[in-house]
Amino acid sequence: MPAPSPRLAARAVILRDNRLLLVNAYPDGRSDLWSAPGGGVVPGTSLPENLAREVHEETGLRIAVGAPCLVNEFHDPAGSFHQVDIYFRATILSGTLDAAWQDPEGIVTERRFVTRTELARLRVKPDSLAQVAWGQGLLYDPLEPIVR
Predict the structure, then answer these.
(1) What's 123's DSSP letter?
(2) Cβ neighbours for 20, distance < 8 A, ≥ 6 positions apart
(3) Ramachandran region of residue 55, left (φ > 0), alpha (ψ -120 to 50) or beta?
(4) Which of 19, 56, 83, 108 has the most CB atoms lying inside 10 A of its own CB?
């Protein structure tokens, strides 16, 4: 049986007041791993449409999606999981973070803006997230092992 195709996801790099928006995408706080908001792509919709939907579901924010800034791959070396994330710069159009916001899928349980110093003390993926958030241009972050 052939290996499944890589999963495609879109993620947002959102800076507000020089703070980066992060989400903890593990139900019931089962992990201390943080990432940029976003998620899997639904076929037949553009990457920006998917990203705007995912960010709203996870945070309650409405965004404008800008240019791509990172292509990141990760996989499970012991299995067949392989995902390609395309990160886009984005800006907030409306909404505020509210601790009472409920992700309809129940995956994201926390969301917050962090400084670069705070980010350095957190467990985050991908490894290049700080470089991308406070940098410029388009980066490629090659295959990383999945983190649980």
Answers:
(1) E
(2) 13, 14, 36, 113, 114, 116, 119, 129, 130, 133
(3) alpha
(4) 108
Q: Find the mean pLDDT for residues 69-78.
A: 90
CA 98/CA 89 separation, integer angstroms = 22
User: Model confidence over 33-64: pLDDT tens digits?
Assistant: 899 999 999 999 999 999 999 999 999 999 99
pLDDT at 79 over 70: yes
3-state secondary structure 77-122: CCCCCEEEEEEEEEEEEECCCCCCCCCCCCCCCEEEEECHHHHHCC
Instruction: Take residue 78 and report the two structure tokens written for it.
Output: 């012991």
Instruction: Check residue 148 and give its pLDDT.
Output: 64
Lookup: tokens for 17: 């007041």
**Residues 52 and 62: beta-carbon distance below 8 Å:** yes
User: pLDDT exceeding 90 applies to what percent of the chain?
Assistant: 67
Residue in the block written with tokens 């879109």: 10
Helices and strands in the chain: count of H runs, count of E runs: 3, 9
